[in-house]
Amino acid sequence: MQLPDHKTKIVCTIGPSSSSEKVLRELIISGMNIARLNFSHGDLEAHRKVINRIRDISSDLDMVVAIMADLPGPKIRVGTIQNEPMILKKGDYVILTSRHVESTDSVIPVHYHQLSDSVSVGSSIYLNDGFIQLESKCIEGEDVHCEVIVGGPLFSRKGMNLPGSQIFINPITGRDLEIVDFGLEEGLDIFCLSFIESREDIIQVRDYAAGKGKDIFIVSKIERERAVANIDSILAETDAVMVARGDLGVEIPIENVPIVQKDIIHKANLASTPIITATQMLESMTDNVRPTRAEATDVANAIIDGTDAVMLSAETAVGKYPVEAVKTMARIAKSTEAWRGHSTLGIDLMKKAINKGHPDVEDMISIQVNDALWTLPVKYVVTPTVSGKTARNISRFRPDTWIFAFSRYPQTCMRLAMQYAVYPIYMGGKVDDWECTSVEILKNMKVTQKGDMVIFTQGQTTGHGKPGGTNLLKFLEID
Length: 479
Prior knowledge:
Elements: E1 9-14, H1 21-30, E2 32-38, H2 44-61, E3 66-70, E4 76-77, E5 86-88, E6 93-97, E7 107-109, H3 115-118, E8 124-127, E9 132-140, E10 143-150, E11 152-154, E12 159-161, H4 174-185, E13 190-193, H5 199-210, E14 217-222, H6 225-229, H7 231-237, E15 240-244, H8 245-251, H9 257-270, E16 275-278, H10 293-305, E17 309-312, H11 314-317, H12 322-340, H13 347-356, H14 361-375, E18 378-384, H15 389-395, E19 403-407, H16 410-416, E20 422-426, H17 434-445, E21 453-459, E22 470-477
Parallel strand pairs: 1-2, 1-17, 2-3, 3-13, 6-7, 13-14, 14-15, 15-16, 16-17, 18-19, 18-21, 19-20
Antiparallel strand pairs: 4-12, 5-11, 6-10, 8-9, 8-12, 9-10, 21-22
């Protein structure tokens, strides 16, 4: 078999441009590792069909493709705009209202009944992903009178951001929990939470699923100022994070986004927590067959920062060139990884940070594996795993070597699909000798030759299918 030529994982948002069987197959072959279903759009039956389609194609190709359900969260949106788009010009005055009224040339209905409680005179209000900026001048009942600071066209249902204001909505909505129910019924266990602010939001969804007897994998989107402030406690609770730069770039000063991105990626790497970098990575490819130089550099810099995965949104959901966007992302990843493969950039910092904390045996195993990869001609790392933790610990050093993660648990394989340099392999049935079985599979895959050296790690067996902790590292030569 032919292994991918890049180790950074690729998330594709599935939409009208990419939901057909033909395009989905091409996306998977081109490098899609995670299919993101955005439940802010589409109905449940349409999503059900896409889920089944992805599973059928990935099974046919014998490739692990994770499916991630992105919950809508409490996105504040404007209502229906009559005669859209409404053109807002600098210096105009408009009224934002939570009253149930139709829009006019100067009145914009908003689906948030506590709007006037959240804002104050002088507050900045952003519409349409921040492209339109208003300033609150006067508040009368449910009406907020605003001056247009930066104008532009406004369409129905566009988002609203209130940076620095208190939002009186639970980050986990009833609609979110309905979608969790749907996902669990369809066998999904990876859920992306939107607009969370604290670890309690994560616990709420985790406990909800646990009440239904399900253990789920939670990806926390960091897109609010309070989430940035609470990033340490969020990382301690979540299973993965996403730097969602769209709303984040409106909620905090846009000039701070690059540094916040780097800081969150570093902290996630240190915690062995998978991290996705998202939003407008190849935005121009929504309409053009090639990205801008700045976009290519943005993707490369996220990979150099240490992201596990990079995400495509409109590029694959509604864009004209979804497959070309994935291929472009894969080429950028390949080129960037080749450069990083000859650099210790970030590795020494990671080791120093681990040693300053309270490293355990598994931490030391991952450091030793990394040292060996830089010193010896190791072809692959082999890690039988229950939870995926050992593979993640090794992956955080962003090795130039594939990590084969063998697991008897399909959900573990799906969850490892977003982990840098990890190639998950599902093992059905009982395995008596992981060392011999794993090596035999590599031989059958024709990815090794006689004399190749591989590193094999393993933990003690608990006998109950529970993680036992990795405490063994061996060097094996393929015979």
